[in-house]
Structure formats: C-alpha cells, structure tokens
Amino acid sequence: MLSCRTPKPYQVVLKSILWLIGLTSCFVKPSVVIADNQKPMESPDFVSDIQPIFQQHCYSCHGSESQESGYRLDVREIALRGGDSGETSIIAASSTSSKLIHFVRAVDDSTAMPPKDSGIDRLSPEQIETIAAWIDAGAIWPNEATAALPDPLDWWSLKPLEQPPIPIKSTSNNSIHAVSSNPIDAFIDAKLQQLGLAMAPEADSRTLCRRLYFDLVGLPPAPETVDTFEVDARNDPIAAYARLVDALLDSPHYGERWARHWLDVVHYGDTHGYDKDQPRTNAWPYRDYVVRALNEDKPYGQFIQEQIAGDVLFPETRDGIEALGFLAAGPWDFIGHAEVSESKIDGKIARHMDRDDVLGNAIGTLCSATIQCAQCHNHKFDPFSQEDYYSLQAVFSALDRADKSYDIDPEIARQRETYESEKRELQDQLHAFSIEIARLVGPELEVLEKEIRVAEASQKVERPPQYGWHSELAIAQETLKWVQVDLGAIQSIEKIVLHPTWDDFNSIGAGFGFPVRYRIEISSDESFSKDNFAVVSREETDTLNPGVSTQTFSNLGKTGRYVRITATKLAPRANDYMFALAELEVFDASGKNLALSRSVQSIDSIEAPVRWTRTNLTDGVTPTMILKKDLEDLLAKRHALIESRVEESIRLSQAETTKLMDDVIDRISKLPSPSIVYAGTVHHGSGNFVGTGSQGGKARPISVLARGQVTKPIREVGPGALAVINSLEGRFDVSIDSLEGARREALANWITDKKNPLTWRSIVNRVWQYHFGRGIVSTSNDFGRMGDLPTHPELLDYLAADFRDNGGSLKALHRLIVTSNAYRQSSDKKDPKAVQLDPMNTMLWRQNRRKLDAESIRDSVLSVGGTLDLTTGGPGWQDFVVTNPAHSPHYEYQLSDPNDTKTWRRSIYRFIVRSQTQPFMTALNCADPSMRIERRNESESPQQALALLNNGFILTQSKHFANRVERDVGGDVALQVDRAYRLTTGNRPTEVQKQKITEFVDEYGLVNLCRVLLNINEFVFVD
Known about the structure:
By secondary structure, this protein is of the alpha+beta class.
C-alpha cells in the first residue's frame, strides 16, 4: 500500500491494487495519495476553500489596502507572479517549489508569514496543506474570483494629447477686463465662473513693467524705463505692452534668466559632490549652451535631442557636443569611480547609481515621471516596471562622465578627424611593421628589449644627480599641472624638445612622471590668460611612456616669451599621480637653446634639491647625457640586429611610415587647441576609472536586479523607455551589441515624439509655474498618481498641444502667457468671496505675489548699485578660497573679498559648489545643486533678514549704491532720497515716505539708507 500525508477533509484517491484480477484503476485528478480507509475527495476549490484562508490571514498585508513587498493575494496575476523580489510565488503543480508555501511553513520568525508581530494568527497545518493541495492540483483560480485592477494606463498624463476646444466666454461674466482673445483667459474664466468668481483688476503699468522684467530677464527695470512704459501705456496700452514683451524676449539676459530655472531642475553644479567634491573645471560650456539655446529660441524638440544625443543627431556641431553636459550635470562619485575598480562590488554600485542619476535626470526632467521608484520593484503607484527602469539604464550603460574634447569650428573639427584618421591608419601600419620585424628577428630582439629596459631602470650615475622638475603628488589623475619657462623676452621659436626623466631610486626607471596627456602653449603673457596659443596637443588619446626618448616638436614658427607644458592627465605612480620632466629646451632657427638657465615657474613643485627642483629643468643636464656605456652598447646591438635580419625594403618602409606619422602629428599639433566640456561620453580611461573606450564604446550588459542589488541579476535587458504610451514602442529596435550612440538616439526620438504626451505637458507646466509661482500641476516633477492633479487640465492640454504643433517655441509660449489677462492681474487679495472659496488661489482669481529668488536679489543689488558686470559666458566666477585642493577641497567663502570685482557678474555664472553651498545664497532659498529642484522654497526667516542686513556683500554694495546715487543726482538729500527709492522699487516715494527717509538720512547717512532699502519688501518681492 502506498501512502503519504493525508490532509483532511480533502483527499484525492490514488490506489493501485487488485493484483489478483489483473485490473489497474486510477482516478482523473490525483494530487495526493491516501490510505485505504479514507474517502476519496476532489482537490480544494479556490472560492470555497482557499480564498477564505487568504481573506482571514493575508489580505490585511497583501490585499487591496496594503501590498507589502509589492505582493497581493487578491489578484491572481500578482499572486502567481510574485512581488518585488522577482521570484515566482505560486508554481502550479509544484507546492514544494512555490515561495508561498515556503513562507507560510517557515518556523523562523524572520521569514514566517504572517509575521509574528502582525497580530494575525498563523495558518494551521491543515490550512497550509489545503493550499499545498490546491497548488499541486494546478492552482486553478477562476476569473470571477480575482479582484479587478484599474487600468494602469487610465491616467490623465498618459492619455493622448489632443487640443480641446476653447471655452465660449459667458456674457454674464463680471470681469472688469476687456474681452480677451487670448485662449488662456477663456479657460481661466470658465473655471472662475463655476465658482461665481472673476479675475482681479489689471495691475498698474509700473507693477507690470517690474513683473515682466523679473520674469523674463531676472533684473530690475531702470526708473527711466518704467517712466517711459507708463507714458506709452497711457497712449496705447496693448501696443506698449507687446513692445516691452518683445524687447525682453529678444534680450540676451532672457537666456540667462531662464537657464537658471533649467539648471535647477537638472541639478547642475561645478563640482562633483560626494566626499571629495573635486572641481569640474570644464562643466561651464553646458551652462553657456543652455543660455545660448534659449536666447536663440531653439525648438524644444531639438533642445532635448541635443542634450540626449547631440553628438549622434547633430555631429560636428558645437551645440551637439556641449549639450551633452546634461547627461553629466548631476553629482558624481569620484571615489567610487576613480579609486574603486568596476569589477568590485562597490565599483558596480557606484556605476549603477551613476546611471540611476542620469536616467532619473532625463525622464524626471523631460517627462515628469518618477521612474527611479522602479529600481528595486515595480512602481507602487504608476505603471512603470523594473524592466522599464533597467531598459533605461541600458540606454546609458556605455557612458561615463568625463572631459570631452571638441572643436567649436566645424572646419577645424573636420580637419582634426581627417588627420586623426590618417594617424590611426599609420599606427596600424607601424604596428604591422613591428610584428613583422619581431617575426624576422625572433627571440633575440625580445631578449635585447628586456635587457634594455633593465639597463634603463638600473642606471647609476657618476656625478651628483640632477634629475629635473617634479610636481607635487595628486590623488586624481585628471588634476591639471603645469610648468613654464621665461625666455626673458619675446623670441622666435622654431623647436621645442622635452626630455623625459629617469631615476634609479626604487627602480622607478625611465620616463618617470611623463604625462599621459598634455599640451604645449606659447604666450607673451605670463599668466597665459591672453595672447596664448597651443602649438602641441596630446590630449585626445593616451601617450605611451617614452622612456628616455626625447619628444621633439619642430617647424613651429611662433613667437612668445613664455613656454608652458600643461599635463591634463598625469602619470601614475603607486597610488597617486604626478608630472615630471628632466629638461625643457626651446630652440630658435639658428639652433640656440633659448631656455638654457632661464627661470622656471610651475603650479607647484616638490623642490627636493639637488635631485628635484625647478632650476634643474633648464640646467642643460638630460638623462641621455649620463647613460652608462652598457646601455649604449645594447642600443647599438639592437640597431645592428635589425639591420642584419630585416630586409632593407621593410626598414625603409618603416622609416617612411614613421616620417609620415611625425608629419601628421605635426599637422595635428598646429591645429587650435580643442575645447573641453564635462559631459556624458565614452571614457578612454586608465587605472580604476577605465570606461568602455577600450571596448570601442560597447555598452555594459544590464540586467534587472532583484531588489536593486548589483549582486543579484535576474535577466539581461536591452535598451528602452517607458512601456506606458500605447502609441509608442517601449523597447528600442537596437541590438544589445550596438554602439551606445544608437541607444541615446532612440531615446531622444522617443521623448520628442509628438505622440508622447508626457514631454509636452511637462515643459508647458514648468514654464507656467515660473510665471505664476505654481504649476497647473503643482508637482511639476511628478505627473503620476502620487502627484497633484491639474487644476486646469483642459488649459494644460491646449497649451501643450499648441506648443507641440507649432514648432516648440518657448518664446512664443512666454508671449502667450504674459499677454493674458490672467497674468496681468493685480496680486491684491481684495475679494473676500474669492479668499473664502479659493484661499490658495488655485483657480487664479488674482496673480500670486512672489518673492525674488536668490539670484534675482543678488543681481538686483549689483544692478541698483551700478556695479553689475554683464560679461557673458566662460568659466564661473568664484567667491571662495580653496584650501586642501589636492585631496578634499574646502571651499572657504568667508575668505573671499567682497570687493573683488570678478565676483560682480550675474549669478548665473557663479561657480556652484555642491558640498559647501554659498551661505548668503542658501539663506535666500537658493537651489541645492545636489538635488533636482522642481520648485524653490519661498520662505521668510531671521537668517534672511540678517543676511540682507549684515552680509559683507550687502555692506560693500550699499557703499557702491550710495556712490551711484551721489553720481546721479549730486549732494541734494531730497534728490538722493527720490533716486535711491526709485532705483530699488521702480516707484516714487510718497510724501510721508519721503519725510521719514529724509530724517533717516540726516541721522544715519546715505550709505545706511541704501542698506535699508535693500531690505524692504518692495525690493525683494516681484510686486
């Protein structure tokens, strides 16, 4: 007799006896074997036997109200599939393999279900065996017994974008505004009518002028501008207003103002962040690109495409490269990338989190979707799966953040690519020659080469060592180091020769410290801030250690007084990096060494005479002068061996190819030095920060990770996006082995597709937010179920469709918004009914009163004081002093001089530090560059009052403000009071104000009046 467990009251009979009559019987649905004395029964029924158990013991944590670990037992699909762990929970016909049975049977309190502290009774053994029997019988779950899930795609932001009709304005509307042809007003009026409300009166012309200036260019209007606009508005208000709007949109300061908003959202910074927070000296070209693109009114679709895949879609263009700074805008873990190998778990985590930031920036900024919530499990609230998330990781899996060289001039870019192509072909030929020569010469050459290397590394000198100049050590290989020689006067320079070092200390050998990448520049200016040009550039690819072979650069034909060698990628040592040269020679056409015994300057130096010191760089002593005879003999022997074994035709061909290589290198060196931007790029690195350049930019394999753990890959995925737009493919037709650019191109096209409703709704909502202080959707980074619903959904769709279908002009969108009656309303709260019905002004029955952001306050202080430097672009100005720069820089703002005129430029050009934010700007609610900021806080605090009253910047600028007032109107106190007040507020003081201010000036002076005026509400609020 066969027997096993016999659950009651349900059994299925399996019996195979009756041997004597030779008859075998079986039953159709066996799941367990029972004893002879038990009655055969059907397998458990889900509705009557299983579902009651789930309801009693499981639904409180895994039902419609709560879904711990993303698991539900009231929905068949989720119950069978499993939760966030990615492991199947119920495997039909195999209870022993089903995780559900594993958990309910567990005796360990840490894994047993229901949990011990849940207050819910554990399942009885009979109940557990009933569930197991049901699973073994096939886990049959009728359709009518599963809870119905709402359609995850039935959500406003995911629905197709169609332009709704403009509401017909009711004749009963009691708005005091003239009938508007602006569609915005029709939608706003329609909502207000439902509440029995109307728009507030239009603000006065002076208020509107100030509001437009701050909204569109971020600067206060001059009093004369306000006066002129007020007069024009009396004569023809519509035309005057339109002219002012157009003038501000055409201003170069428009791009500076709106670039700041964009840089907030993409969390741009000029340092890496994290522990060491090293500076990014080449991040600023991306910032300048954003300013330029906005001023040019670049179509928004192209603006997106350039930032995602500009190098692919717009090759050989400046914007196509600089825009890629978007992919590298956020924080970057220097330690995790540069000091930890990618093969280690910590290195994998660092790169995983780096891709997480890049894709979150792209989808969060451009689509207002919270895809990062799907990193460890399917999104709890929105229809984004883990596969969506990791498919986006696959898009960026070949990229790293690094400096990327490019040419601004397209013609120079084409020339450089032509020369580099020739160079690659010649390198291949030389490599082929070396292989052929090695084949002909055989093992003897290999032995000689080894002996030569040993000899070079073990040289002993007969005289006191004078090895050359040696920089201080650096932790980061990309740390810039430079050394330069002063020729004493402007000279004609024909040839420059670099002599690599050689040292016998600790067998460090020949070529010690020779830079991996470098450039040589000539200038008549000691600081190289002007009149300088690069004559040699070895910055695009790594150079091999030259040993003691001199590096000669001839036929320069340049003039200058100073010659500088800048290492842009340092030579590796043991656990750090450095730069060293034995000798620098500079020759004129006659062959005279102009650098001999000349003074040497450098960014730093270890200065350890007599071995290492700046003076050694021009003392005329080189390693080749002190090589021992045995090395010279070995070199001669190698030459003779090759001549004896290798055919002359091969030697001549190799020599000719070498000459051609020298020629193409010379041509490359004479091209203008390439520009550099910190961007998302295929990195050709070394050390631990290798990148994918060595594999030709082939993407790293990406897998869905169980609970987001890099040690638990489940299955590999290809590139894709969000599979939630019915009209768009969520996975890209790009092979896993394709080059990474094709992946980014596919994503750029997916985001900018006209059928993608998220993109167009997102940007329109952001622009609206900055004009009204609140978006139509207040959660501008989250259009999902955890975000707010739109207050005016039809208006949002109308604007988004219009924007999408008419060229994506941001300036046209601005113009439409600011010319509406809704925008031009007064911000006064004079309607008690409206205050009661809509206290938060979500229906826009008035304009919102807004405080100036930190940058606008600071720039306004400079503007009214007459000290604002309007120089555009370039590296960011720094209002700090850096201490401990080599390892972990400290950015000391208190050491900065507020009288330093270099810091009086617009705030958009400020060098932004992540780890130590600027105290004055932070007090005024400046954005934290380590986070993507959808909307800044507007707060009023004692810290702000103290900063605006006592900060060194304010004290300094108050004096300049007073000086300006005196220059403008002289010493008459009445005129000074009027001028100072008008400069800060745009209005004239009332008689009462004038009297009080005059009394204040008489007692405390003009400087203190200017200081007070920089603190009043009329100055720090838009209106």
